[in-house]
Amino acid sequence: MGEIKGMGRRDFLKTAALSGLALGGAAALTGCAPSTGAEKGASANASAGADVAWDKEVDVLVIGSGTGAFAALVAAAKGAESVCLVEKGTMWGGTAATSGGGLAVPLTYAATDAGITDSKEEVVKYFTNATDGRVDQAVLNSFIDNGSTFIDWISEEMGWKFAASPLFGDYYEPMDGWIPMGRGSLGAADASGSLSAAQMWDQMKAKMEGYGAEVLMDTPATELITDGAGTVLGAVCGDKNIKANAVIVATGGFDHNDEMRAKYHPFKIMATNAVPTNTGDGQLMGMAIGASVSYMDRCWGAPAILTTGDDPEALIAEGRIAQEIAGTDWAMYRGLPGAVVVNKKGRRIGNEAGPYDLFNQAFAYYDTGEPGHVNIPAYFICDAACWATYSLPGHTVGAVGDGEDSYFNETYGGEASDPSEVPAHFVKADTLEELAEKLGIDAAGLAAEIATFNENAAKGVDPVYHRGEKHLDINTTGVMAGSRTDLANPVLAPLATGPFYGAVYVPGTCGTAGGLTINENAQVVNVNGEPIEHLYAVGNCSSGVSGGTYVHGGISLGSGAVMSWVAVNHVLAAKA
């Protein structure tokens, strides 16, 4: 591996900050002839005795180029006879390539380099507690046992060096087994410096193709082909029947499938930054041949300021989802000094400086007095000081601090916009009462809430939601806010000065987190827990490694990468 340039504070933080960007049952098939599964999840069958006309035969077929890129790379590099990766869309890498690129993998050299003391026992304890016991212990142990080996391998293979980040660490705090950093959001660098996700995915594509792997873009997989015993023989990909010794499904979530979200999610998810091709294809193909599914009620929560122009009431009534990019709130907006998020009654809904996924769970609250999800939609509100100091979607200001401390502008800024111009998704009012009227918030409730909040914020305390008391509040949201030393609490300030600004704030996601149930080998299992031969799943179309829980930044990419390693090694070992 070539010399890796050290990551300065700015590169380190910029890479880490963006890494925060993770049913069943079909009737048994009879006969011995190959059969195909229907796209909508029902059993479909070929005529008994009919033969499939194969257009292509490969050793390993990977479906999806997000975390599936890791599977294709590992297979190609470790000597699979032939590897073909098919991608439904025209954009290489899917949602993964648009993320921050951070990988969550515990017990690696990156943690050791950062002086982190950790153990397998503590990792298991944390995952078990954070998931409320829902995590599959066998799968979790496989992830832990293989994670460090995978990071060592890909570091050598790609010439990358991973570094642990103080940002986007363990999200569930306090929790037995929690540590402040070392497991989540491992950022990659090469000899040129820190790498974006797009750069990582481009490098992996070039590497796998150098080994002879074939990549077919704009080629959706629509059906899995099995024999009469249920063994997977291949898949229908575009206009081709591709035969494979192993099929690894990595098709992502079902964000853009309105029917599936309505069926499985306990409350409305109104915004996503996942690519539009994430429509649950892998889950549906698997269920069509009898695969079990798990954690379909879960998603990687990422709330958002709604900037798309969609009417929130229409999104709710029609069960649609907005494609939201600019407004996705990793930690940049809701927890800024001088900002809060409230519901229609004017009440705050949670710790605005906390992790995005945990804050997203506040939308699940159901009011039993006035039946309904009272927190959907919610409203972002800030005062003039916050507006003048910080960049918000469609509104850009100058740097916070100077030189190395001008982090906020370095990461999210740009050419400053005219502060008098208010983007269409914001409203402006001279008083809180006027703002409440414009947004449809109970004015008396808001006035009372902000009065109490302001009194406490001036002292740097939040006795209701404890904003600013936790490690992540200070070391992620606080960093986004410029690590203010002029405030009693770097993420708290009163909403004291008009005019005031507000916008619709909605539950969102960067990917759904439930899918085909896998075992410790990343094999897809049926409703009886038995492996479906030659079928594997990784990433957001699988049940993953964390019980559908966003345990720390980068868990979607990290778990998908490691389980890709596990899947391919299981495939190759079976052939040995």
Structural features, described:
This protein is an alpha/beta fold and 576 residues long. 56% of the residues are buried. It has 16 helices and 23 strands. Helix 2 packs parallel to helix 6, helix 2 (68-77) runs parallel beside helix 16 and helix 5 crosses helix 16 (555-575).
In helices, the fraction of residues equals 25-40%
Instruction: Report how far the terminal alpha carbons are from each other.
Output: 29 Å
Helix/sheet category: alpha/beta
Task: Please tell me how large the radius of gyration is.
Answer: 24 Å
Instruction: State the helix count.
Output: 16
What composes the largest sheet?
9 strands, mixed
Q: Spans of 5+ residues with little confidence (pLDDT < 50)?
A: 1-49, 406-413
**Count of extended strands:** 23
Strand content: 15-25%
- Tell the overall outline: globular
Mean pLDDT: 90
Brief sketch in words of this structure:
The protein is of the alpha/beta class and 576 residues long. It has 16 helices and 23 strands.
What features would you highlight for this structure?
576 residues; alpha/beta; five-stranded antiparallel sheet; 23 strands; 28% helix; globular
Walk me through the topology:
Elements (H helix, E strand, L loop, with lengths): L8 H9 L17 E2 L19 E8 L4 H10 L5 E4 L22 H5 L6 H11 L6 H22 L2 E3 L23 E4 L2 E2 L2 H14 L3 E3 L4 E6 L5 E6 L2 E10 L8 H7 L6 E2 L8 H8 L4 E2 L4 E3 L2 E2 L6 H7 L3 E2 L15 E4 L13 H5 L17 E5 L1 H6 L17 H6 L13 E4 L2 H8 L3 H15 L13 H10 L19 E7 L1 E5 L2 E2 L6 E3 L5 E7 L17 H21 L1
Parallel strand pairs: 2-3, 2-10, 3-7, 10-23, 11-15, 11-20
Antiparallel strand pairs: 1-8, 4-5, 5-6, 8-9, 9-10, 12-21, 13-20, 14-19, 16-17, 17-19, 18-19, 22-23
